Amino acid sequence: MATYVTQFSEGNKDQKDLLGGKGANLAEMVNMGLPVPPGFTISTEACKAYLRTGEVPPTLRVEVTMALRKTEDTIGRHFGADEEPLLLSVRSGAKFSMPGMMETVLNVGLNDRSVQGLATFANDERFAWDSYRRLIQMFGKTVLGIEGDLFSEALDAIKAAAGTTQDTDLTADDHKKVVAAYKQIILEETGEEFPQDPRDQLDAAIEAVFNSWNTERARLYRRRERIADDLGTAVNVMAMVFGNLGEDSGTGVCFTRDPSTGHGGVYGDYLPNAQGEDVVAGIRNTFPLTKLEELDPTSYAELRAAMRRLETHYRDLCDIEFTIERGKLWMLQTRVGKRTPAAAFRVATQLVDERLITLDEALGRVSGQQLSQLLFPHFDAKSGISALTKGLGASPGAAVGEIVFDNASAIAHQKEGKKCILVRRETSPEDLPGMIASVGVLTARGGKTSHAAVVARGMGMCAVVGAEAMKISTSERTVQVGDTQLGEGDVIAIDGATGEVFVGAVPVVDSPVLTYISEGIDAAEQAVEGDIETLDLIRSVDRLLRYADGVRRLRVRANADTAEDAVRARARGAQGIGLCRTEHQFLGERRKFIESVILAETSEQRDAALEALVPLQRGDFEELLSAMDGLPTTIRLIDPPLHEFLPDLTEVSVQVALAERDGGADEHDKEILAAIQRTHEANPMLGLRGVRLGLKIPGLFALQIRAIAEATVALIEQGRKPKPEIMVPLIGSVRELQIIRDMAEKIIAEVAETSGVALSIPIGCMIELPRAALTSYRIAEEADFFSFGTNDLTQTTWGFSRDDVESGFFAEYLENGVLTISPFETLDALGVGQLVKIGVDGGRRTKPAIHAGVCGEHGGDPESIHFFHNVGLDYVSCSPFRVPIARLEAGRAAV
Ligand code: PEP
Ligand code: MG
């Protein structure tokens, strides 16, 4: 009974874990009756077993033999036979697509004898020897790990001797020379002959694909895309079909809709007389797919029918790789295609209109991450700067940066905090580190399906490809377009939507989707003035966002400290303020007020200093509550350690010391120094802050509570509907909250009595310490609501200092896989999330209706929002910019 190998005809699209994405989809196409060359998939389990033990499982060899025989029977030819040989392609295929990151070996099965058989079968000696040399080259590089340049140099030498620079000019005899040279390279580099036994070739190729799961670039890609390291890759072994048998053959890539814009229609690249890798590698510039209609109308019609069937079957945009061998269409791969954020929104709503998917499903097809990318700025068309040249807009965005030509300079730029654009003739998987370090990528060659385009789209980075007018010299580090010559360090700007390339820093403007988000649909429609595509995009976003609003259970509030932020947040759909950090109201000019509170020597002095703050705070709260009229507004009592309001210890020490030397320091400066020394703490984030400060200097919280109550009264008297909520930070024990609550209730009652206005102001607390989460059932006795402060909760649960960790050892932690992403960015569901769950559950046990939300940074993070939905929080609160993203994700979490 086979355990590791599945014939294409036996699998299906839902087996991606086992067969990888490519294998599962090949199986599905076979099931649909589409023309797929026969073959089989070696499962990810085999890869995992290999990676675990370092050995190919013995039963795998037997299973491969059996599967191979079936493949031979289906196609009626024999693997590596001298006559009419069956050749195989051996391709990687993980669960999640990792374009170009792992290895492929083509033409497996060719040797000194079968190359003759292939020549006879194809009736083309040149083709047969070209295929053979390709095999040796790929095998040498991929399986034997020989430096690729050695092969390119040997090929160049033979081309030079033949008086040409084009591969296509080489004759069969030239290719025989290339084969001989390549074999010599292999012998010299490895001490062994190129293996003539087809089965040895196959086994080695399979092993090489397994190994390619763990290459440097594959690991880097997985980290970046957050793909788990232990999934392993499947290996697809398929009968070779040839796109390079002449002008009635060819190869191409197509999409069922435009993956850049979402536009319907025929979209793809076709390259006559070529093998698949030529298209993806972007080495030769391709024709648009419509050209195939002229060249081969029958295959074109068949392909179009297959595209339609696939799209109907998958109910989504599909991408397809195909080959035409002497007028016969073969489907080599399909999958649900990657797309730009704009295309994602447009395709999702198109499919709803076409009754192919429901609105619930449409919501699942877009993400907050994509929406955030749509909010990026683009170049100002009115800048009047004309483009230097134009390529294909392959991945949208507007990038401005210095030209770099290789990975090393890109990384050096990034380290210096300088933005750069990676400029290459074409990109290959080796360029991944440089792409990651750059803000954009620009290539001279390749279509929208080239490696650069696919990878950039996947990473959401701006890319322009195929700007053919550019002549790039990597050795001289120059790029020439007509008379203009640019070098490394020159600033360029690239527009990933239009494909335009500019010299200099072109000014950028806000995105139309951002206009829609912040000013509404009418303003946005006016702003785009009849640009149908953009209009369609805005309407798609609007439709899905409104749908998300209708289905989501989580409410979305904003973290806003000023009326201005509150207005912005409200325009973006915030349903209240989840966190107003009042300490932010004491920065700048007002810092001196807090300073005098700290410096006060007597309680009278301190009371006076505090009293002076009441009118200022009342004004702040009136503005804030008025901007949020009718919506809940959580105001957090002052939180940070006092030293944050005092100047830096070293600076003042030096200042005082110098002044003393020069005849005496200012008394005030000396007082400040003493105060800094007095309040100095070794671990201020674990020190006198939050409720501790409120208990140590009760007047501080009291003044804020009074200001909130008085501002509320003033607004009610104006006929407004203020809805303040008072939040106490850094609670660890119920008793802390009880003391503050008693005080707050007294103050509120006093204000109500004096003014004659009835006040009902909920009092709740942050849950941001593990102890608070663990004892939430007790804290709930004194709290009207909870707000999870996941920033501090992460800090205290992991014991990572939130202010230092990112510049400290995070890089190593990400590198060696302790972390896959910063826990300050995406909630650590397993650890910190567990405390959130304990916190909510405990609170609800005591008070089933207790209102609970989150106001840490995670409130705006897509993945974390799903977690908060699942643990039953009532709302998330995030920065005003992220409010629409949170609305969308909260909707997605609910469907
Ligand atoms: C938190 O700790 O998550 C929080 C929201 O408070 P702050 O970031 O102000 O400490
Ligand atoms: Mg906090």
From TrEMBL:
Organism expressing this protein natively: Nostocoides jenkinsii Ben 74
Originating gene: PPDK
Molecular function (Gene Ontology), one example: kinase activity
Residues annotated as domain Pyruvate phosphate dikinase AMP/ATP-binding: 55-285, 295-344
PROSITE patterns: PEP_ENZYMES_PHOS_SITE (PS00370)
Domain PEP-utilising enzyme mobile positions: 418-499
EC number assigned by the record: 2.7.9.1
The keyword Kinase belongs to this UniProt entry's keyword annotation: yes
Protein name: Pyruvate, phosphate dikinase
